[in-house]
Each structure stands twice: as structure tokens, then as C-alpha cells.
Amino acid sequence: MNTWLITGCSTGLGRALARAVLDRGDNAVVTARDVTKVEDFAESHPRTALALSLDVTDPEQVCDAVRQADARFGGVDVLVNNAGYGYRAAVEEGGDADVQRLFATNFFGAVSMIKAVLPGMRARRSGAIVNISSIGARICAPGSGYYSAAKAALEGMSGSLRKELGPLGITVTAVEPGAFRTDFAGRSLTESATVIDDYADTAGRRRKVHDTSHGHQPGDPAKAAAALITAVGSGRPPALLLLGTDALAAVSGVLDDERAEIESWRHLTTSTDLSA
After folding, report:
1. pTM exceeding 0.70
2. Which residues lie across from 6 on neighbouring strands?
3. pLDDT tens-digit profile of 73-131?
4. Taking a C-beta distance cutoff of 8 angstroms, is the pair 3, 73 a contact?
5. Is 223 a residue of the active site?
6. Rounded CA gap, 152 and 238, in Å?
7. Rounded CA gap, 85 and 127, in Å?
8. H or E stretch including 115?
9. 195-181-5 Cα angle (round to 5)
10. Residue 121: its pLDDT value, please?
């Protein structure tokens, strides 16, 4: 029986994953900023669920959540950094305070959670860390520059962390979901207060007033949860896991385009060595 600590369980993928983990008989520390939104898990699974209030931007709450997980279940075997939200703005439109809050949750919050669970994982020489990223880290859509940057930072850190922890028996996986039927494009999506007309045909087209994707996303959160459990349980989870046919198509297209452009500029790239 594994113990999972999952952030951001009030809705969407986090909630679907918490339900799937508990239904299969594992322990789960289910967290949300508003604990009342996850107390139903503790009520339906009183022996295996621990519902906690957790704001990942609060270091004291982060440390307390891990302490309570250790005290109740003896340690955290799987950390899933799922807490996060979207932010849309042209780069020039982005508010400094908005961007700082975005990174505090989507990147630095995950780092705080990782640092809190690692002493226990290192002592046991086992564990799995799953960082929920986004295809936005690769497709870099207009209007999502700051969100893409936060997720790219998460993935860059994940790649180095995987190499640091591999010899210690701890795995690290970055997950890039496509569009799933969650609140991400609705309640969880924020945007800049500033609007600059020159970006109307690029970033402007993706502001909430023009976004019709909410409620029509192709991805099933329950199937995503099952896929995550399968990956973690495989013993050799991948460095990068794409979720959704739309994610596979989008990321494959980006990689193809990048390879083609790299090859088209090969002559200039290789001209800069001292021996060239």
C-alpha cells in the first residue's frame, strides 16, 4: 500500500486522482486551500484518507502537511504536484504581481513540496515525484507566455531532479496533459487586467471572453488519473508523460518543427567552433 500526497484536490485532475487512489486501497493525503472541499474523501475513506488545508505558497502549511502525512501513514511514497492555475496575457500586458503569484503557485510551490518530502524519501531510498506540467511548456501559445514559462521552469527542474534522485531510488516524472474536462479553462483561468489593442489578433483571441473550450475538452480526468497510477506503478515511470491524443499531436508537431529548423540552420550552428 502506497501513500500519496496530492495537491490541488478540490476539482479536476487532482480530485479524480485522489478518488482513484483511494478506491484502489492506497492511502491518500488529499489537500486543497479550502479543506471543506476535500473533507468528503475523509468521510468516505476514514482509514485511508487524510484531508488537509494546504496553500502550497505557505511554507508552514507545506511542512505541516508532510509532518501530518508522516505521523498518520509513516511517510509519503508518491508526491503529486497538481496545484496550479492558468493565466493569460500578452507578455507586455502581464501584471508583475500576477506573474509573481503565478510562479509562486505553479513553480515555487512545487519546489517547496519536493523539498519537504525528500528527506523521508531519501531515508527510505524510494519514492516517486509527479509534477503536473502542461503542453503549454512546449507549444507556447500566444497569450500564455507566463504560464508556459512557469511550466517550462517546472520541467527544467524536474529533468535535473530526476538525474539527482535516480541513484537514490526515487523517480521524477513531468506530466503534460492536453485539454481535459476540468475547470482549468473556466474558474481556474485568470487573465491580466491590462488589455492592449495591438495584441487583439494574437494573445487577445485567447482571452476568456473569446474562449469556447470550457466544457468541451476531449480529455477524461478519470482516465488521466488511471494513467498516472499505471505510470507510477510501472516501477520505471517516464521522464515525460503526455496525456491525451491532442497532447500527442501538438507536442509531436512542435518537435518536428524544431528538428526541421535546427537542421535548416546547421551550417551556421556548426560555424562557431574554434576549429571551424
Report:
1. yes
2. 30, 80
3. 999 999 999 999 999 999 999 999 999 999 999 999 999 999 999 999 999 999 999 99
4. yes
5. no
6. 17
7. 26
8. helix 109-124
9. 100
10. 98
- Candidates 133, 148, 158, 192; catalytic one: 133
The amino acid present at 78, given as its one-letter code, is V
The dihedral over CA atoms of 51, 119, 100, 143, expressed in degrees to the nearest 10, equals -80
Residue 213's pLDDT is what? 61
The residues of the chain scoring below 50 in pLDDT are none
Stretch (H or E) spanning 129? strand 127-132
CB-neighbour burial class of residue 25 (10 A; exposed 0-12, middle 13-18, buried 19+) = exposed
Place of cell 528538428: 259
Closest CA to 228 of 184, 174, 185: 174
pLDDT for 212: 61
User: 75 is written with which cell numbers?
Assistant: 511517510
Asked whether 6 and 31 are in contact (CB, 8 A), the reply is yes
Would residue 151 show up in a list of annotated catalytic residues for this protein? yes
CB 4 within 8 A of CB 21: yes
Active-site residue flag, 85: no
Which member of 87, 147, 158, 199 is catalytic? 147
- What is d(CA 25, CA 2) in angstroms, rounded to the nearest whole number? 9
Q: Which domains does the chain have, with CATH numbers?
A: 3-248 (3.40.50.720)
Query: 143: phi > 0 → left, psi -120 to 50 → alpha, else beta; which?
Result: left
